[in-house]
Amino acid sequence: MTSSVTTNEDPGEEFHARVFLARVVEPGDEVAGRWIRELGAAEVVRRLRDGGPQLVGVTDRRWAGLRARAGLVEPGRDLAVARDAGVRFVCPGDAEWPAQLDDLGDARPTGLWVRGLPSLRQWALTSVAVVGARACTEYGAHMAATLAAGLAELGWVVVSGGAYGVDGAAHRGALGAGGATAAVLACGVDRPYPRGHTELISRIAEQGLVVGELPPGEHPTPSRFILRNRVIAALTRGTVVVEAAHRSGSLVTARAAQKLGRHTMGVPGPATSSLSAGVHELLRGEAVLVTDAAEVVELVGDMGELAPDRRGPVLPRDLLAPAARRVLAALPGNRAAPPQEIARGAQTTQDDVIARLYELRALGYVERHSDGWKLTRQAMISVRAGRGRR
Questions:
Q1: Within this chain, do residues 324 and 210 fall inside the same structural domain, yes or no?
Q2: Strand runs (DSSP E) across the chain, as ranges?
Q3: Domain, as residue range, for 287
Q4: Higher per-residue pLDDT: 275 or 313
Q5: What is the DSSP letter of 182?
Q6: Of 236, 186, 191, which Cα lies nearest the Cα of 213?
Q7: What are phi and psi of 143, to 5 degrees?
Q8: What is the distance between the alpha carbons of residues 241 and 226, in angstroms, rounded to a whole number?
Q9: CA distances from residue 203 to 85, 151, 193 in whole angstroms, order as listed
Q10: pLDDT at 2
Q11: So what's the pLDDT on residue 310?
Q12: Using an 8 Å Cβ cutoff, are 185 and 110 in contact?
């Protein structure tokens, strides 16, 4: 079976049936998904179009509504419009179908309309979702773009929803780094939404992929946005939420990812920001805190792809032997002290302290004052810095 709408070869009855159902059935309809699984798409279409026995799980009223919609569907026209727009239809059984979408069970898409040259299946294998608030802050936009650019530079595909705010920043960050990005839309992929992102989505289609469940010309609705999020979660190896209020749609994506056993991550924000409250709620649960692309890849990547250790700057005192550091730390900061007092603080012998003090004097850390020892100005700065990092 082939998914290309530009081929002269007939892709088969099941393919055309799924094109038909993509316009009749709403995304995420588990009842219709069960029909397709149990009977096959072609049989479901015959029942809807030709008036066969009513299928189980729906009321008479809903069945009549589905049959009325079915009477207006022209799959050949949808395929022709798609072909003219450079769009192909990919469905289960195709070589390009991402198998991870099957984790959605009966809620998996009937098929996906894909605009762009790369293979959807290949790209999905190394993809990460970056989602968040539409009305994001400058911090949120900066973190989304930086995170996406870093992921792109590490060879990962950045997937988002093409919306304003975090989504747009993530797409732009990946594109700016010369990387790969895919937008999953809640409308027909031939009609970019939001309108203000027409240029961005067109650029994504040229350099990456634009994907959606709805056939050409279909418009978005609030419920379609929510249902679209399950596709983003299932398609990718993990979901990163950059900014999200308590009722943000991006939390739906994160929870769908958790339900599917995918990695869920969050970028922390100010504790006082309502736009980070949803992310912080996730982080109090099973989500993992991340601050850059390397930390994301450590979770979603292959074994051994570890983020670098996070350390503060190396101070000169860090290069001292542990015994010398203990002696240095035992000296008072504002006066000279005799060796026996320093020995008690360092929990060692007086002879060991005297030996270490002469080492430290050679390095410029201490100076002798009559019968005692005192920190030099350089050492006082170093010791204070070291204590501040504890």
A1: no
A2: 87-90, 112-115, 127-131, 157-160, 181-185, 209-212, 238-241, 263-266, 288-289, 366-369, 372-375
A3: 116-300
A4: 275
A5: E
A6: 186
A7: -65, -40
A8: 15
A9: 14, 19, 13
A10: 40
A11: 58
A12: no
Over its C-alpha atoms, the chain yields an Rg (Å, rounded) of: 30
List all residues 6 or more positions away from 84 whose beta carbon is below 8 Å from its beta carbon: none
In the predicted structure, residue 164 carries a pLDDT above the cut 70: yes
240, 377: one domain: no
- Measured CA to CA, the distance from residue 363 to residue 156 in angstroms comes to 48
pLDDT in tens, 306-359: 555 556 555 566 678 888 889 988 888 888 999 999 999 999 998 998 888 988
Q: Are residues 384 and 239 in the same domain?
A: no
Q: Is pLDDT of 91 > 80?
A: yes
pLDDT at 4: 45
Lowest mean pLDDT of 44-48, 53-57, 175-179, name the range: 53-57
Q: What is the CATH number of the domain that holds 146?
A: 3.40.50.450
The two three-digit tokens of residue 186, written as one number: 């809640």
Same-domain pairing of 255 and 194: yes
The token duo for 387 is: 């204590």
Domain count, the chain: 2
Beta-bridged to residue 114, according to DSSP, are 88, 211
CB 364 within 8 A of CB 313: no
Q: Does residue 136 sit in the same domain as residue 242? A: yes
350/288 Cα distance (integer angstroms): 49
Sign of the alpha-carbon dihedral angle for 293, 299, 304, 309: positive
The verdict on residue 289 lying in a domain is yes
Q: What is the mean pLDDT of the chain?
A: 90
Q: Torsions phi, psi of 376, nearest 5?
A: -80, 170
Tell me what the mean pLDDT of segment 366-374 comes to. 86
